[in-house]
Amino acid sequence: MVHPRRRRSDMVSRRFRRGVYLVPGLMTLGNLFCGYACIVYTVRGEFATAAPFIGIAFILDGLDGRIARMTGTEGAFGVEFDSLADMVSFGLAPAILAYQWGLTSFGRWGWAAGFIFVTAAAMRLARFNIQAGSGDKRYFAGMPSPAAAGVVAATIFAYPAGLRETSGAAPVMALVLVPAFLMVSTIRFRSFKSIDLQSPRSYTVLLAVALVIAAIFAHPAGVLVILAYSYLASAFIEMATHRLRRRRPEVAATPAEQE
User: Fold this and answer.
1) Distances from the Cα of 99 to the Cα of 1, 141, 145, 166, angstroms
2) What's the sign of the alpha-carbon dihedral 157, 161, 167, 173?
3) Is residue 140 within a helix (H) or strand (E), and if so which, with residue range?
């Protein structure tokens, strides 16, 4: 005979497990909502309100994966749902935001540039799904779509007035096309998913995160622009540093070979 208390405890544990399974999905749903909200506010011309939704989607996208791994609730449905949400929030939403903000004066060339960004984001997400679990986990092959969308969103959030003349809007082409080509490139970008919060250095990481959060609250527009473009430039800086390190042994070996 099963004890009534055991039945109740089993029912509670089952409900808890179901609730835990829902948490990553709710995070992904919030990510999707942020992309949709960004598009709605963009159509209204409220760029200062639209751009931060991409930043919120960025945070939710980072949380859903971590929570799923921590709770052991990863699944095929969650992976596909996350990719579709990312396509809206980091592909379609930033492209429409950039077009309405500064590419309308280019006419068809403007929406063609936006479409290139959308295509690059779709290709980047598809490649990430195929290569998941393979390669060096410390790096991404190509710029991640959330970071590329972050460059667009941070720039527009810092200057939400918009650009209407073709002469002044020319840099917007670079704002859209450069991240697009970086997404489909093979340039390595540092991944922060490999950071172990249980290591002795976790206190330093947490302190750095706290300083970044404080800086964002103090001056959100400027700090977000610095963070977005610093990450974009970091891949090239690391690439140049790596090449210099390779050349140093060759230069040092040259005098010995001459003797």
Assistant:
1) 68, 27, 17, 12
2) positive
3) strand 139-141
Measured distance CA(2)–CA(7) in Å, rounded: 7
**CATH number of the domain that 54 lies in?**
1.20.120.1760
pLDDT in the model for residue 20: 59
Range of the domain at 90: 15-238
Q: How far apart are CA 184 and CA 57, in angstroms?
A: 21
Report the distance separating Cα 201 and Cα 100, nearest Å.
44
Alpha helices, DSSP H, located in 44-107: 47-71, 76-87, 93-98
Query: pLDDT tens for residues 18-47?
Result: 555 677 888 899 999 999 999 999 999 999
End-to-end CA distance of the chain: give it in Å, rounded.
Answer: 90
Calpha distance 154→221 (Å, rounded): 7
Question: Total structural domains in the chain?
Answer: 1
User: If 0-12 CB within 10 Å is exposed, 13-18 middle and 19+ buried, where does residue 39 land?
Assistant: buried
pTM of structure: 0.82
Q: Is residue 1 part of a domain?
A: no
Q: Rounded mean pLDDT of 228-246?
A: 88
Task: From residue 199, give the alpha-carbon distance in Å to each of 42, 194, 208.
Answer: 42, 11, 15
Exposure of 3 in the CB half-sphere (CA atoms within 13 A) = 3
Of 122, 153, 127, 121, the residue nearest 140 (C-alpha) = 127
Name the β-bridge partners of 188. 141
